[in-house]
Automatic annotation (TrEMBL):
Entry protein name: Phospholipid-binding protein
Pfam families: PBP
Gene3D superfamilies for the chain: PEBP-like
Length: 159
């Protein structure tokens, strides 16, 4: 691993949808506030700006009621009740068949190692969001409901 996102969750993954990595990584949460009702996840790539002109959204998930989010929760048939938003594959600039537009789409740095930012939010409520929501709706619905959050940055290799 060498400090990088493991290959099974990124560019070199075997599990893909329309050519894009689709196996979401596990998240192990420690010290979540006792009064947290749900968790939300925002996974993005700021290093994408010089490549495509905007911060790439890799995953938006809300209303997670577990503290240990299992691998592959995004695209597997499971018994977890949560909602996922649109990722950047939905961009009109990518054309048709750009990859899955809802849920997790893994890192695929085209030019060099990119550093990906994961933020997990502990919320005091379940957010009123439907599958396929947009980032702006996600951020607005969280306003006033974030009890705590944690952010990490982790690299993914290009080669």
């Amino acid at each position: 691993m060498n400090g990088f996102i493991p290959d099974c969750y990124s560019k070199f993954a075997d599990q893909k949808i329309e050519g894009k990595p689709s196996r979401s990584f596990p998240i192990f949460i420690t010290d979540a506030p006792d009064n947290a009702k749900t968790l939300a996840v925002y996974f993005r790539d700021f290093d994408s700006v010089p490549v495509c002109g905007f911060t790439w959204i890799h995953w938006l998930a809300a209303n997670l009621s577990v503290q240990d989010v299992p691998a592959n929760i995004s695209h597997s048939n499971n018994n977890f009740d949560f909602v996922q938003g649109n990722n950047s594959n939905i961009s009109k600039f990518l054309g048709e068949n750009a990859g899955p537009v809802e849920g997790y789409t893994g890192p695929m740095p085209p030019d060099k190692t990119h550093y990906y930012t994961l933020t997990v939010y502990a919320l005091d409520t379940k957010l009123d969001l439907k599958e396929g929501y947009w980032l702006n709706d996600f951020l607005r619905k969280m306003e006033g409901h974030v009890i705590d959050s944690a952010t990490i940055s982790v690299p993914s290799r290009a080669e």
